[in-house]
Design goal:
The protein is an alpha/beta fold. The chain has two domains: 4-178, no CATH class; 191-379, Trna Endonuclease, Chain: A, domain 1. The chain is 53% helix and 7% strand. α8 packs antiparallel against α13 (332-341).
């Protein structure tokens, strides 16, 4: 067993490694989103093929390769094949893996081995990863691909190491994006805690599609109302449409539509961090003027623009008199809070929200990871 002192890396090492890992992750994420390979790699076609195959292999070997490649970027003179401190000229790759690689992969929702990728006997008892090293793994390609990758890095140096890190991360990101992330399901939350949870979730940082979350939350509310509130029992809650679907082309009235006897009866439009103003209300009136809705909600996470309040009230009153449709402008948190009071339990709302979060095509891993983090904050 390695001396514990050898598993301790300097704060500087850790910070530099995390910074490089973050930069490589951003590059990999951009490549995955663009659906292309990053240009300028020092790896030849065969080497790149081996690294890519290793990245696609669900085995701790790819985590080992990632850690060794990352270590090479901050310690160019270190022979990363000598992955144990007990060997002459070696270092504790397992300690570095435990302190840097595993926490990073966990935070990003990427596949990782608990505690360390060196826990398997294949790697924990292995000697230096020299070209003739025979590593018995299942699948069989994992061991040879690891040995080949590490020796390519050792031969070509730092730029090859960075290319390997990016390539491995690309495959792990693809796997994560295609897979299912277990979602935390808190029970018996108070209404105030539910609202706090939604606030944290809505306001996390996302690359895209954050406005989908208020839509999903209101849809989850209506699923509950149909079950618990008599007014909505006979309404038909229409399926949520994709975010890019235009209302006119799809025939929908709002982001969320309810129908009765085949015609729209109530609809909801949601806004994320956009104050409702005269222009938004005017556009809504133009959109629903020929519809049959009796109530049209415009809900936002931000309060109504004070300078437009009087004009908005005037528009609402005039439209109600001329059309018979009541436009309701309100905060989304206040609206959800009100409706939650009508339900038997908040558990139904949370279950509905999680189910939609897990299956909605406009939401991905980052929205799911943010939900789990928000749950940790609210329930701790």
């Amino acid at each position: 067993m390695e001396n514990d002192l050898h598993s301790i890396h300097t704060t500087t090492d850790k910070e530099v490694a995390e910074n490089i890992l973050s930069q490589c992750y951003d590059l990999a994420n951009q490549a995955v989103e663009a659906g292309c390979e990053l240009p300028g790699s020092p790896l030849d076609e065969q080497q790149a093929k081996v690294v890519k195959r290793l990245g696609c292999t669900k085995h701790s070997a790819r985590g080992v390769a990632l850690t060794l490649a990352l270590y090479k970027t901050i310690h160019p003179q270190q022979d990363i094949r000598i992955h144990k401190a007990e060997y002459e000229g070696g270092f504790s790759a397992r300690g570095f893996d435990n302190q840097v690689t595993v926490p990073f992969l966990k935070a990003k929702g990427l596949p990782y081995n608990v505690e360390s990728h060196w826990l398997t006997q294949t790697f924990s008892y292995a000697g230096p990863f020299l070209p003739k090293m025979q590593l018995k793994t299942v699948p069989k390609t994992a061991g040879p691909d690891l040995t080949t990758t590490v020796n390519v890095i050792e031969e070509l140096g730092v730029e090859a190491a960075k290319a390997v890190v990016v390539s491995l991360l690309c495959q792990m990101i693809k796997e994560r994006n295609q897979g299912n992330i277990p979602l935390t399901c808190p029970k018996n939350l108070s209404i105030d805690k539910v609202i706090k949870l939604l606030h944290l979730h809505f306001n996390s940082k996302y690359h895209k599609n954050a406005p989908r979350l208020p839509q999903v939350a209101m849809y989850a509310v209506y699923q509950c109302l149909k079950k618990d509130v008599a007014r909505y029992a006979d309404f038909q809650l229409m399926p949520l449409e994709r975010m890019k679907a235009a209302n006119r082309k799809s025939g929908s009235v709002g982001d969320i539509d309810l129908q009765r006897d085949g015609r729209p009866i109530e609809a909801v439009e949601t806004k994320l961090e956009i104050a409702i103003n005269e222009s938004i209300v005017t556009e809504a009136i133009q959109k629903i003027a020929t519809a049959t809705v009796e109530r049209y909600f415009i809900l936002s996470t931000k309060p109504v623009a004070e300078s437009d309040m009087a004009r908005i009230e005037e528009l609402k009153e005039n439209f109600l008199r001329s059309n018979g449709c009541e436009i309701i402008v309100n905060g989304i948190y206040d609206t959800i809070k009100y409706y939650l009071r009508l339900l038997k339990t908040t558990n139904d709302f949370i279950n509905n929200y999680i189910s939609l979060l897990a299956t909605d095509e406009d939401l991905n891993y980052e929205h799911k990871m943010a939900w789990n983090r928000a749950c940790d904050q609210v329930t701790q």
